[in-house]
Amino acid sequence: MFSVIKTKFALGAFIEGLDLSNPLSEKQFNQLYEALCENEVLFFRNQNLSHENHKQFASLFGQMQTHPAYPTVSNYPEITILENDRENPSKIEEWHTDMTFKKVPPLGSILIGKIIPKTGGDTLFSSLSSAYEDLSEEWKVKLEGLSAIHSFEFGFKESLEEEGGRERLADALLENPPILHPVIKEHPFTGRKIIYVNKLFTSHIEGDDKGTILNFLFDHIHQEKYQYRFSWENNSIAFWDNRSVLHKPVNDYWPQLRRMERITIEVDS
Predict the structure, then answer these.
(1) Distance of alpha carbon 40 from its chain centroid, rounded?
(2) Taking Cα atoms as reference points, which of 135, 148, 263 lies closest to residue 201?
(3) What is the mean pLDDT of residues 82-100?
(4) Is the predicted pLDDT of residue 198 greater than 70, yes or no?
(5) Active site residues
(6) What's this model's pTM, rounded to 2 decimal places?
(7) Dist CA 68 CA 142 (whole Å)
């Protein structure tokens, strides 16, 4: 048995009494998946996982994917390295949902803190279901049926503008043309409706030529009342439901070294 300790905020729960280096029983897996869907992001402390442990745990939830723009761990192409220091400052500053430039974006991501700076480097999470629930009925009706364009090129414009960036990411650009997603989606497990736009990858909403609707939604979903701020420690884990959560790194630790390792899980087809 393990405990699910909810935060006092719009989302998030800490899991206690579970060692993720050990295999999970079917009952534990089902309870953990339900906790993930209900709480939208789960946090674990003191999890000393090997790369193989990380992979085995993630594989319980679905197929694992690689990221077209980041390096990976040797012999573990599914483990993305997110490492920043003085020479390599983070380029991701915006709120986002991972890889919405794909036709079928990921189910979730399991991020492990490997090297945590002495100060700074928190991650903010925000509930897109709570943001939807707070909309007026007028806005809920207005948003139904609208579609938004999500784009790899839009999201990685800074990397593409670097010297050699377009050459380095040429395959990713070809494999990830702009894609349409509904502005309002329904979570497949909880049935909650969510606002499915994010500032990093959503370039515009069809028919919203002046950006009025999209800018309103960005202001709405970024409100502090929907957020939880997670402070990292070495061997901490955040496992978020990418179908209903925004996240944003707090890049206040530069020039200190921060290394994270992430596995992103595909939605079962």
Answers:
(1) 10
(2) 148
(3) 91
(4) yes
(5) 96, 98, 247, 262
(6) 0.94
(7) 35
CB atoms within 10 A of CB 190: 16
The closest of 260, 268, 250 to 95, measured between CA atoms, is 250
HEC readout, 51-119:
HHHHHHHHHCCCCEECCCCCCEECCEEEEEEEEECCCCCCCCCCCECCCCCCCCCCCEEEEEEEECCCC
Percentage of the residues of the chain whose pLDDT score is greater than 70: 100
Q: Worst-scoring range by mean pLDDT, 85-89, 106-110, 183-187, 256-260?
A: 85-89
Tokens describing residue 58: 């993630």
Sorted by where each begins, the domain ranges of the chain are 3-265
Distances (CA, A) of 185 to 150, 182, 261: 14, 6, 29
Cis before 255 (ω within 30):
yes
Q: What is the pLDDT of residues 56-90, one digit of tens each?
A: 999 999 999 887 778 999 999 999 999 999 999 88
The Cα 82–Cα 75 span in angstroms is 16
Task: Find how far residue 101's CA is from the centre of its chain.
Answer: 13
Q: Give the architecture (CATH level 2) of 3-265.
A: 4-Layer Sandwich (3.60)
Question: Can you tell me which residue has the tokens 């707070």?
Answer: 134
